[in-house]
Design a protein that fits this description.
alpha/beta; single chain
Length: about 500
Amino acid sequence: MPRSHAEWKQLATRLNIEGRAFIAGRYRAADSGKTFPCVNPADGAKLADVSWCGEAEVDEAVKAARAAFESGVWSGLAPLARGRILKRFAALMREHADELALLETLDAGKPIGDTASVDVPGAAYCVEWFAEAIDKVGGEVAPADPKVVGLVTREAIGVVAAVVPWNFPILMASWKFGPALAAGNAVIVKPSEKSPLTAIRVAQLAKEAGIPDGIFQVLPGAGDVGKLLALHMDIDCIAFTGSTAVGKLIAGYAAESNLKRVWLELGGKSPNIILPDCPDLARAARAAAGAIFYNMGEMCTAGSRVLVHRDIKARFLAELRQAAEAYYPNDPLDPNTSMGAIVDGIQHQKVMSYIDKGLSEGAELLIGGKAAHPGQGLFIEPTIFDCPRHDLAICREEIFGPVLSVITFDDVEEAVRIANDSEYGLAAAVWTGNVSTAHQVARRLRAGTVWVNCYDEGGDMNFPFGGFKQSGNGRDKSLHALEKYTELKSTLIKL
């Protein structure tokens, strides 16, 4: 039975929140004693004081990871044995699902209905998926001279740093540590300082599952910790999800140090194209509302640009206004809440500044535009702008909040041109009743994922996730994710 609002609130009062780093198999405070407050954005209450790691903790964690990796205690296990341990890890995540969902909701302002049904189960499924896949991924016997046997194999890359974002804390972390651990690596997770609690908690679950000390560690802190990891000479790979600006810095630090492998999943300004032969405008409008207002618009794949044909614009906007009403923000611990709180005051101020910018640039405010529940928490109304041009700041820059820009077009060529006129290329969608048009437009959209007659659906682990252009490189999810955390080796044996 789903839990009620009152039950979730009661469970929240009984949480025992851990805020220390997890290094070499145990929780410990930073040597400096430095901490930062972890605050609930829905009501401003402090949840915990979290350790702010520094150079000493980074060095200690890397040393422990290197020793554990080189010992073969994890990398030397048969893939099937690693898989069994990871399955126990996934099972423990499910056993503690209510606790993890609460931590995620209180920490990041996300609706409990989403963290309990999507984020936590999705993270456990990711770990389980790679656990089941890893003993089924083989190498090659390459064509060679008959006097030579040529083998192509994959082996773990070594010590992996995973720097993960605040919008889907446990899910994005699992997309990195799931395949990296399955491949045999030692992993150091650096969660965002805005939402570190679930990563800190699952570290203990990993140990309980049987993952050896030093193989899974968590270093909370701010951007300086990520910089230390990116610059560290004994880290072999860094995987980052976050803003394009910070991703560029991470790549630079890696080049400045030891040329560690760098994998980046970055920003987006995803177009959602509604063609005049859209088979169901009401459904398209509901999907468009969900694409930007789900998770408070704090999604790299958010459909923040709706491109709608002039002939159907009035009818579509009427449906869109109605669909947006379902996303008025409310208490994140209420299972009926569709949109929660903005993660912190900095992000809240940023989103509100973009709303002001949209107004100053001449966009017409259709709905929203104000802070909701003023004085009670960091909430923003679902906001929709009708934009006179597609070159406004709110049409080009990633806002990461519940702000939608509607752009008008007159034909398919114009729609594709506007959609691709972006530095980003993470996701896109097209709505049409013509299968040929669907294929033709999808091929021309410069994006890592294209949805047809839906948005953000079918997110199974079988599909790789990542972007074109300044939305990053490499892919999370699917077997392709293992490519990021392994090295190819050619072995030639003279007969």
